[in-house]
Amino acid sequence: MSNIHIIQGDFSKRLQLPIAEGLKAGFPSPAEDYNHETLDFNRDLILHHEATFYGKVEGDSMIEVGICDNDIAVIDRSLEPRNGDVVVGCINGEFTIKFLDLRHKKDGYIELRPANKDFKPIRITPDDDFEVWGVVVWTIKHWR
After folding, report:
1. What residues act catalytically?
2. What are 22-47's pLDDT values in tens digits?
3. CA dist 137 → 25, 81, 144 (Å)
4. Rounded to two decimals, what is the model's pTM?
């Protein structure tokens, strides 16, 4: 299972980083295509500062969609979860990160689906102590 540890962010500060646009995943592009726009995570990626948290992922149940051990998930608690969203769920006091599957809601249960064939979906019934804690809107990877 992939667990997640919640981290409170400090969105009061600005950190503007330069963006290199035109990065080709195919053939290299000329260096003059480098652009000096800036990206500020707090301004450009976080829409609801008061409801946004970071979470450090532990485990590999979401590895097939590129969410891996030690990745950082950016979680927005103000968003209404929709079918197919990657969510942080709290089951019996423990956090997990999975796809939300609402297709069986009429049948009295929902599922949290992993993205790893070695893991089974988690069936959530009204008897479970469960809440969708937040919706994952971004993930940050550490490559080195």
Report:
1. 61, 98
2. 555 666 656 555 556 777 777 777 88
3. 23, 11, 23
4. 0.77
